[in-house]
Design a protein that fits this description.
Number of strands: 11
Structural class: alpha+beta
Number of domains: 2
Largest sheet: 6 strands, antiparallel
Number of helices: 5
Length: about 280
């Protein structure tokens, strides 16, 4: 590890990952590798040699690490001005890349999606946080002042569990990744955000992602008919999350979901995020 002494104080990229539960070491290493790839593409856009990213501080618990550009071949840290520009540009690039995919239909500003390579690496970078209840990601541009060594925040971006899951879903769709739809004959899918779901039938088993399901529900925005309901795996144990504290048959759920369309007719729903479970009698 490179120790940056007081004379090298300057700008850092501070990454805060809080999965809320243990993370596989392989997932974590792949996440950091994706971050490094994205950084190299960003810095080498003009054919320049990229200063390596070095971890200068690492804290346990929730993962908090500080990163700074460093030129090991030259034996010194990048100049203060260059470091500030590199850190500012790259933290903004990460924020814009995630925000472009995590925004809901009514969120502003609407940002242009990043390159395909960046999208893939963003997906890999946030992977350790997906499906973790209460997960949180923070990306900060911080600056250490040479006068007293105190750190101050220049700009900070944060994403919560719902935003991270939504970003991953939208990146999968943008990259044409398979969605494991319940029927190979499905012509199209439509994404619904924050719609009401009323369960018409709910079995006692875990939610299924494909195949025959005993769960059926109504999304009035789409159809008055009760249609099969599947639950996207890999992000949350969604069905258990929905039903652990309420009676599913007498409650209203606010969800994000895919609707499967065949010849423009809705045939079923795939729930991929749950915002709220409202027991009967509570205001919607």
């Amino acid at each position: 590890m490179v120790e940056l002494l007081s004379e090298h104080d300057g700008d850092r990229i501070v990454i805060f990952l809080d999965p809320g539960q243990p993370v596989e070491l392989g997932d974590l290493s792949e996440s950091f590798a994706a971050l490094a790839r994205m950084y190299e593409r960003h810095y080498r856009s003009n054919g320049e040699i990229a200063p390596k990213l070095f971890v200068t501080k690492l804290e346990t618990g929730s993962i908090l690490m500080e990163i700074a550009p460093y030129l090991p071949l030259m034996g010194h840290v990048v100049s203060t001005m260059d470091t500030s520009i590199i850190v500012a540009d790259f933290t903004n690039r990460m924020w814009r890349g995630i925000k472009a995919f995590s925004s809901g239909p009514h969120d502003t500003p609407k940002l242009e999606a990043p390159s395909t390579d960046d999208a893939r690496d963003i997906r890999e970078f946030v992977k350790p946080l997906l499906g973790k209840k209460g997960a949180e990601l923070g990306i900060t541009h911080a600056k250490y002042e040479k006068t007293d060594g105190e750190k101050r925040t220049v700009v900070e971006y944060s994403f919560d569990e719902a935003e991270l899951n939504r970003a991953a879903i939208n990146i999968d769709a943008a990259l044409n990744e398979p969605l494991a739809l319940p029927s190979p004959n499905a012509a199209t899918t439509k994404t619904l955000y924050e719609v009401m779901l009323f369960m018409d039938q709910a079995n006692r088993g875990p939610g299924k992602e494909k195949g025959r399901t005993g769960d059926k529900g109504v999304i009035p925005e789409v159809s008055d008919k009760a249609l099969p309901v599947w639950f996207r795996k890999g992000y949350q144990d969604l069905k258990e999350h929905m039903t652990k504290d309420v009676n599913p048959m007498t409650s209203t759920f606010v969800v994000d979901a895919f609707v499967q369309l065949v010849n423009d007719e809705p045939r079923g729903y795939i729930v991929f995020n749950v915002h709220q479970a409202i027991p009967d009698g509570e205001p919607h």
